[in-house]
Design a protein that fits this description.
about 30% helix, about 350 residues, 12 helices, alpha/beta
Length: about 350
């Protein structure tokens, strides 16, 4: 799974438009794509035709520390089209930084959520707010790649330095530095000013300017008004073609060959579909609970850590292939069978393991 953030503190640069249409284009190319709307204004959510009555949970519920409002990301995912899903935004996102003001690990909140995501996506795209605050920091921490849409206006490059400085800060604090690429938007190559600005972008980003760019066309505004990607409302327009070319370029440029091999193998072998299972344990005084078993080589890691849905109730969702699995919970270092399990099997250490069969 590759995570790509679209970020620029400057508004009106085509960031959300690019997030929507790039996600739709990747899905059109057969890539399983998830778009996360991380902007409290929820423009990407409404830009895909979604309204409040279409969903119950949002990315706010996924990230919040409030156990009464918190929910799994799997429960916040809304299907949009073939291969395209959305995690919608909510205005409450604008208040979430206050919940993490004294927590050092807060910058990795989205990263941890995506690490535990059960559904197998080829691409996760994150539409950042037009600012360089807590939410954008989270997106940059979670992403391997960042696309910075740059409109060819007089002030187009003013926010570049601040964004790159934030990425340097992330690298210094946690050793993570996503690769940043510029995407020229609202391009009209008939003007001399546009050509001069393209040269300026080239000088600023060097080899990290994408070959694809987005023309200035009325079809983009039409798609925004209709709440539909260009490929749905104007599939033959210049804008739709621009984003398809962009999707093809990043698919090739950011190719993860090993990940693609692992994704394609089940398709080629005709494997039966995976099932999403919910594991839960009531452990009111526990400080941390892990879920380990045959499905993760009995490995205690951040990926196997459960989280509290409510006080004392620890939960974890797993997407498993059909098969037979032994497993245990590890509660503050103590290996514990699942009290909800009806099947157990002796292990080589004189005890028993919980057993689950996925059909």
């Amino acid at each position: 799974m590759r995570v790509l953030a679209l970020a620029n503190q400057k508004g009106g640069c085509g960031k959300t438009t690019s997030a929507i249409n790039l996600a739709a284009s990747l899905a059109h190319l057969g890539k399983r794509t998830l778009l996360i709307d991380l902007d409290p204004q929820a423009h990407a959510t409404f830009g895909l035709g979604m309204r409040k009555e279409d969903f119950k949970s949002t990315i706010y519920n996924v990230l919040t520390e409030d156990s009464d409002k918190r929910d799994f990301i799997e429960n916040a995912i809304v299907p949009v089209d073939a291969n395209l899903d959305l995690v919608p935004a909510h205005i409450l996102l604008s208040t979430i930084e206050q919940e993490f003001v004294s927590k050092d690990e807060a910058v990795s909140q989205l990263h941890e959520v995506l690490t535990r995501l059960s559904f197998p996506y080829d691409w996760v795209l994150v539409d950042c707010p037009p600012s360089l605050g807590f939410l954008t920091f989270n997106a940059l921490r979670a992403a391997q790649y960042v696309i910075m849409p740059v409109d060819l206006g007089a002030f187009s490059l003013m926010g570049v330095g601040k964004l790159l400085s934030m990425i340097e800060l992330i690298q210094l604090k946690i050793g993570h530095a996503p690769k940043v690429y510029a995407l020229p938007t609202m391009v009209d190559m008939r003007t001399r000013f546009t050509k001069e600005m393209m040269q300026e972008i080239q000088r600023t980003f060097g080899a990290h300017v994408l070959n694809a760019f987005v023309h200035q066309t009325v079809s983009v505004k039409e798609s925004q008004a209709k709440g539909e990607p260009l490929l749905r409302c104007r599939p033959r327009s210049k804008g739709a073609i621009d984003y398809l070319l962009l999707a093809q370029e990043i698919t090739e440029k950011f190719r993860d060959r090993e990940a693609e091999r692992l994704i394609e193998e089940p398709r080629q072998n005709g494997s039966p579909p995976k099932r999403l299972l919910d594991f839960a344990l009531k452990a009111e005084s526990a400080k941390e609970v892990y879920l380990v078993g045959d499905f993760n080589d009995w490995n205690l890691s951040p990926e196997s850590l459960l989280w509290q849905k409510e006080e004392g109730l620890w939960q974890r969702k797993l997407l498993l292939n059909p098969g037979r699995y032994r497993y245990k919970f590890v509660v503050d270092g103590q290996w514990t069978n699942d009290p909800a399990s009806r099947s157990f099997e002796p292990n080589p250490y004189g005890g028993t393991d919980s057993l689950i069969e996925v059909e």
